[in-house]
Amino acid sequence: MNKDQTNSQKKLLHGVRPSRIVYPILIGIAAVVYMLSKEVNGKTLSLIEFSWYSLFWLCIALIMMIIRDLGYMARLRILTDKKFSWGKAFRIIMLWEFTSAITPSAIGGTSVAILYLNKEGLKVGKSSAVVMSTSFLDELYFILMFPLLILFLDINQLFMTDIHNQSLWLDSLLYFALVGYLVKTGYFIVLTYGLFWNPRGLKWLLLWIFKLPVLRKWKRGANQAGTDIIESSKELRRKPFWFWLKAFIATFCSWTARYWVVNVILLAFLFQGYSITEHIMIFARQLVMWIMMLVSPTPGGSGFSEWVFTKYLGEFLPSAGVAAAMALLWRLISYYPYLLIGVFILPKWIKKHFSK
């Protein structure tokens, strides 16, 4: 590898340095503290009763996150034809999640993920193919599940809340969800077309778009992305249906387990006896929340995620203060662990691969 390539990789990694965990932590905690300061009082705290029953369900919530990570690891092994061991797959997934946690949701960890895979032994073309395959499968999950849940629950149920006996049509959240879903659908269509039908046409489109004055300085990167797409397409079009089915099953298990975390957290404190329909509604609203987070400019959706949680899931909780407390607990289980694990793993990984 030449010096210019190494320097560009180091520059890319500089954007995901461990010190950047400070920003999402401060933003998220500040948002929760603000909401708690407005809503929490002695009566609010008395509504939260911790018991051995609560501990049991919180352990189940952690197990859900483990299932989620195992699903991602299994998918990575499938997409790489088991080139990576479970240990190496764990390391890559944790680095990938750490990168996603400290960058805005719309950016994610995709660009750096190619570098992670390449440094762990995959060629650049193969690394690009794997990363783009994960994007394809993730978007496929959202694009299929969102309309199915709307059909099952009705859009009025999904975007109307009843907080403290006051019905509220959440127009802003609806718009966020629609914009996020349209962005995801557009990206999925372009990615599918480029990967499986016309990769050279997609590269041409990218180069044409990046001729615009405001985007011209990134034209070189767009050219490399187009080349990666062409290389990825050669890899992916040879894969059989069974290969994609196994990868999608792993994707389905991973995302579904992640969404069940909130359901389990609410069960831990038994705020009410939720029916099956209510559980599906809670699950569906988390899917919509994740689509909304796509347009959040903050790292990992910090602040925005906690606010949406309290507004969008508040009707399933006895008060706004309790909703804010549950939002913090949700993030402690599903978000902050990746920041801590990444801080531990990333410096060692950089030292191992860039020490020379």
TrEMBL record:
Protein name, entry field: TIGR00374 family protein
Residue intervals passing through the bilayer: 21-38, 50-71, 92-117, 140-161, 173-196, 241-270, 282-300, 320-346
Protein localization: Cell membrane
Membrane topology classification: Multi-pass membrane protein
Native species: Labilibaculum filiforme
UniProt GO cellular component terms: plasma membrane
Keywords: Cell membrane, Membrane, Transmembrane, Transmembrane helix
UniProt superkingdom: Bacteria
